[in-house]
Amino acid sequence: MSTDATGLFTTFDINGVTLGNRLAVAPMTRVSASDEGTATETMARYYERFARGGFGLLITEGIYTDRAFSQGYLHQPGITDEAQEQAWRPVVEAAHRHGAHIFAQLMHAGAISQGNRFRETSIGPSAVQPKGEQMEFYYGKGAYPAPEAMNEEQIADAIEGFAASAARAVAAGFDGIEIHGANGYLIDQFLTDYANRRRDRWGGDTRQRTTFVTAIVEAVRAKAGPGVPVGVRISQGKVNDYAHKWPGREQDAEVIFGTLAEAGISYLHVTEHRAWEPAFKGGPDSLVALARRYAPQVPLIANGGVQDRARAQEVLAAGADIVALGKAALANPDFPNRIQAAQELAGFDHAILGPIANIKPTELAA
Q1: What residue ranges do the domains of the chain occupy?
Q2: Is the dihedral of CA 248, 254, 259, 260 positive or negative?
Q3: CA geometry: angle at 298 spanning 173 and 72, to 5°?
Q4: Which of 64, 144, 185, 267 is an active site residue?
Q5: Three-class SS of residue 29?
Q6: Facing residues of 322 across strands?
Q7: Which of the following CATH numbers is that of domain 12-364: 3.30.450.40, 3.40.50.300, 3.20.20.70, 1.10.10.10?
Q8: Which is it for the CA torsion 301, 305, 308, 314, positive or negative?
Q9: pTM of the model
Q10: Helix 41-52 vs helix 82-97: crossing angle, to nearest 10
């Protein structure tokens, strides 16, 4: 844990991977892969600029994990075969050239898939139509269709997909694995009471609904090996249910964070709209503070609304070890270098993510 709450430029170790500072690039969907899901030269240049700009850790966009139901978006990258694995190598090498480490975020979209070249239907823990509507800036339109409830074979296949993709990510040179358990995707669907109505071992109370994610952690750890960091990203809000809060409030936080800590994760990555605000109405503690309380020995990455050095230091002081930046990193791919040099930071231009959230030529020129 950090002994210097304001030390953004001190090193930090996650399971043997030593980061040069406490600033990370958050995972952001940019729908810029090929039709076949291979990472592109554009993506390599996009990630390299963050490494060149001084970030100690880069976390990729969500990478789909099987050639069945996991893909969530058209032009989303995958890591399910040799071609996709090899295509990530230039991305990893670009990050390493500038001294950054890079973790692969593995993702299964589940019921909120809105673009899958392998299947025309979706699956989820239960046959419950997702809230909200598909996102147009990721090539989506209209309501999400109701998914099919997953059977035991499909659950096993999804777990194996995470594990096999983790092995490929390690082979491609990634320094760590992040399991995407946030933002409304499949793992989060299993954690969410209204999306998971199962009455078998995969459903039930909050503790029982963590069974799926802990099974994935175990499978990924077995394939990645003990020397590779394996973390999990967790949120309350979802891309299709932005304002969602855990109904059990702090008790749910205790169960989810405590169970993940017991599962032996290398780090926990929490994300909220504003990382420093109370997690629950009327409560004093942020999700960062609750994660630190209930997973006290687990390295903690925090993401959400941080735009400047002072706010990053505030989030570290609340218990985070690493601060992950999204929009602030898009606006300032050299954010660490800028704040070290006391240079002015640019504001975020929403045109970057519209009309489609793909990587723009103007970004690569930055």
Answers
A1: 12-364
A2: positive
A3: 50
A4: 185
A5: coil
A6: 301
A7: 3.20.20.70
A8: negative
A9: 0.97
A10: 30
Residue whose C-alpha is closest to residue 180's, from 193, 172, 190, 168: 190
Residue 261, beta-bridge partner list: none
How many of the other CB atoms lie within 10 Å of CB of 148?
Answer: 15
142: left (phi over 0), alpha (psi -120 to 50) or beta: left
Task: Give the chain's length.
Answer: 366
CA angle 163, 77, 90 (to 5 degrees): 95
- Radius of gyration over every alpha carbon of the chain, rounded to an integer in angstroms: 19
Q: Which amino acid is it at 227?
A: G
User: What does the block give as tokens for 60?
Assistant: 């990729």
Q: Which residue has the tokens 């001190």?
A: 10
Residue with tokens 């793909």, as numbered in its chain: 358
Question: CA–CA distance from 353 to each of 109, 121, 252, 294, 330 (Å)?
Answer: 20, 27, 33, 35, 10
Q: What is the mean pLDDT of residues 67-93?
A: 98
Q: What is the 3-state secondary structure (H, E, C) of 120-144?
A: CCCEECCCCCCCCECCHHHCCCCEC
Distance CA 94, CA 80 (A): 21
Phi, psi of 23 (to 5 degrees): -115, 130
Confirm whether 267 is a catalytic residue: no
1-26 per-position pLDDT tens digit:
343 435 999 999 999 999 999 999 99
The identity of residue 182, as a single letter, is A
Residue 29: what residue type? T
DSSP string computed for 225-240: -TTS-EEEEEESSBTT
User: What does the pLDDT look like over 315-349, one tens digit per residue?
Assistant: 999 999 999 999 999 999 999 999 999 999 999 99
For helices 152-171 and 211-224, angle between their N-to-C axes, nearest 10 degrees: 40
Which conformational region is residue 270 in: left (phi greater than 0), alpha (psi within -120 to 50 degrees), or beta? beta
